[in-house]
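To the team - adenosine monophosphate complex, inputs and output below.
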Amino acid sequence: MRIYEEISKIRETVRAWKQDGLTIGFVPTMGYLHEGHKSLIDTARRENDRVVVSIFVNPMQFGPSEDFASYPRDLEQDAGLCEDAGVDVIFHPTAEEMYTDGFCSYVDMNGLTTELCGKSRPTHFRGVQTVVLKLFNIVTPDRAYFGQKDAQQLAVIKRMVTDLNVGTEIVGCPIIREKDGLAKSSRNTYLNEEERKAALILHKSLEVGKALLESGETDAAAVKAAITAELETEPLAKIDYVDVVDFDTVTPVEKTEGPVLVAIAVYIGKTRLIDNFITCNAL
Ligand code: AMP
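Output:
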């Protein structure tokens, strides 16, 4: 396995692979890898001849008061996980390598990014789309793998690839959870013991919403109310949003017909966590 910081090096490697007719699977990450990331890597490994993982904490997708500086980083441990998972190349650029002096081009979207996380993180998806398109242009993957954990991001990237005719297939992968149900996340490391227990309320509240839908409820407001009520039983939880949206367009729905995304964002102490479920297999 090789680790490259320079765009020119990864381009050279990719060019040689393509000349040999090899397919490339790509997993973009911000590092501090866990089993959620590993499931994406494993799927990429199964479906492609070569696998590239990028590890880049992208400053552009963090707001001014967000956790860019404190976001956990551990390249050595990440490299171990990647090596064991059969990754061929880690791309680990510096911010200067990605954003050269005078950088002023962005990818933005009118729809899909205004609801859910877009409300409290208004510049987040612009940063995500810009870096993902840049990474696609550098790695030129046949397939790229994204987790349903960040369901809005997955929908946004799918839309971007369609709209801008990017020749990469987007593959959505299911949420990987801890044994007790908490969705795995690099940000879980911020939680102290008490908060870690309190964080279980995210999954628990979604289970309440899911049970209601399975019992035949089709009113989105009723589902949101049930999830909200469950979240409010946890004193350490502060709700950012509870929403029911169309999975493809990320617009609110009144009735839960078709594949809907039920998504929540909740502060546990200072840590903002997200979780969701999709009603049909919309991945
Ligand atoms: P991040 O490093 O948090 O930017 O995540 C990189 C990729 O891993 C994204 O596509 C995430 O959706 C995905 N991911 C993160 N956590 C999980 C998880 N628990 N299950 C599945 N995918 C995940």
